[in-house]
Amino acid sequence: MKKFVKIICMLTVLALALCCFAGCGAKKENTAIKIGGTGPLTGGAAIYGTAVYNAAKIAVEEINALGGIQFEVKYEDDTHDPEKAVNAYNSLKDWGMQVSLGSVTSKPAEATSTEANADNIFYLTPSGSSTNILGGVVNPLTGEVDIERKDNVFQMCFMDPNQGEASATYISEQKLGTKIAVIYKNDDVYSTGIYNSFKAKADALGLSIVSTTTFTEDTKTDFSVQVAAAKEAGADLVFLPMYYESAALILKEAKDTGYAPKFFGVDGMDGILTLDGFDTSLAEGVMLLTPFNADSEDEATKAFVAKYQEQFGDIPNQFAADTYDCVYAIYKALENGDALKNEDGTYNYNISASDLCDMLVEAFTAEGFTYSGLTGENMTWTVEGAVSKSPKGMVIQNGAYVGMD
Amino acid sequence: MITFLNHLINGISLGSIYAIIALGYTMVYGIAKMLNFAHGDVIMVGAYVCFFAVSSFGLHPVLGLVLAILICTLLGIVIEKLAYKPLRQATSLAVLITAIGVSYFLQNAAQLLWTSNPKMFPDLFGGAAIRLFDGRLTITVGTLVTIAACIIIMVVLTLFTGKTRMGKAMRACSEDKGAAQLMGINVNRTISVTFAIGSALAAIAGVLLCSAYPSLVPTTGSMPGIKAFTAAVFGGIGSIPGALIGGVLLGIIEIFAGAYISTQLSNAIVFLVLIVVLLVRPTGLLGKQIREKV
Known about the structure:
The structure holds two protein chains of two kinds.
Chain A: H1 2-26, E1 33-39, H2 46-65, E2 71-77, H3 82-95, E3 99-103, H4 106-119, E4 122-125, H5 131-134, E5 153-155, H6 160-173, E6 179-185, H7 189-205, E7 208-215, H8 224-232, E8 237-240, H9 244-256, E9 262-265, E10 287-290, H10 299-312, H11 318-333, H12 353-365, E11 371-373, E12 376-381, E13 387-388, E14 392-397, E15 400-403
Chain B: H1 2-32, H2 39-56, H3 61-84, H4 92-114, E1 119-120, E2 129-132, E3 137-140, H5 141-163, H6 165-175, H7 177-182, H8 187-212, E4 215-216, H9 222-235, H10 240-261, H11 266-280
Antiparallel strand pairs in B: 1-4, 2-3
Helix pairs in contact in B: 1-5, 1-8, 1-9, 1-10, 2-3, 2-4, 2-8, 2-9, 3-8, 5-6, 5-8, 6-8, 9-10, 9-11, 10-11
């Protein structure tokens, strides 16, 4: 019996070894630059993940149709969970990912950006907005840098503090409210990050915050206390730095209790109009800052919206636009592919991820590199990884976004 | 003062929902002596059934509720037949673990079937509300219906277990299964009926829960399920009025803790109160004091 077990063991080892060789033998030449990303394709934040994936597919299709350099895109589901995101990232690495579009949401992006930094894979997230993704940002509460700068990580969307600051500035400039209430999710980096910078900026601008209440993942269904507190404090504007699913409940609670202040959201509010079963009249008059307007008259935007609607049946949101820009920014940073062109006119698709990363980091941070896309004109990136572009104020009217200016 | 009343009404409204869920827990525990941790997920299934009935098939909400009750009752019976009945002679720990397994199974099945994108549950009461003191105090019709449902269910259950033959059989099973069987009571059938009733209650709770807090995802039932279990223990598990009192008190404590102490600490305070109550009265507020005979 013992002998039998031994033989089985040896056979297993042999089989495994053979598998290894088989793996080596099967390795093929790349026929395109492999772009990977993780995002919530299912789960509570799936609306963002699918938007990002759809937009990435459109951008890659368009670039490939030009006949020059070829891209290939693949997304793995992370269900907005950091652990699953790292697993998803690793399976993309096994697939041979050369450039990463990072993760769609902040918490997973914090985890995968650290991995990508260690692996030296170029990382450009369309929508992960927390400061911990880039690293190297001074924490306003402690005055210290919590996480070292991850020098190959870049963002296409605004960083959380920028969103908070921009919102406070916008509210103050447009005189939207005098008494402000804030409800935020205090176990979420995205929400707290925006809140902290909003508060700092609001204090500096002399805006008065009359009520601040919080909720967590476990208490995100009942908002009666928070809305009552805002109402009691007489707030005429409620700032909601959170994702749309919680915001939808707050809007309903406010309506039920006969409270009608102005509501002001951030980019997480985007998506509320396509929420299953949501009564869009609840969102009437809700304002938000977002860099993308699907109703814009701009040619590129119109073309993108038409294509997206035709293929996926929805109006693309800001996350989709950011992703579309990500792919094109990478394309532009590669000099429309010329940076990878061999002498015989073919492209060097087998370049290692690390070499490609160094090349792209240099291109993105180079003096004079600008990119104009759907979410902004002449965007530039600093060595700190943050993008510079200006947000637009939007208001929801008759179930659609309308530019406020 | 008006704010206080507002919070009180919100607390009672939340508490009544906990109470209905807790009634289901307590029924099953009191009679089958097992903790049905899948109860919270049956709630979720009930809510989904009603959601699709109302928003996809355009049925009247009452029909949606009836459909949810029917499907959940059926689901409860099937779960009991497949998962719990084979374990009738097993240790209570084995049954407990099975219940947790069923809970995960239901959650993941729901995720596969309906994806985990949140659904906005339709407002079954059309947002109607009674406004007092120039609109500063609002009581929604949903709240009133929930409170009424809660009291009606409690009264009906008390009468049912006290007066009917089946109710008597249930109480007999709860006291001593072996003796009950010797007296000619079909213990298996009695327990199945208990599950059916528990699951029907879960369906009602699911519809009321989602109509008050309309975000519906496959994990919708789990946190309210745990809170309601806490409420059932708080009031004395196995006791029907205890579940009602426990649920309502828990809801009020949760809302008041959030309103007057801190929204960050409200959950911690809820569970702290539970610990204190259990230290002082280990059987809960209305629980029977059981003396161990040696």
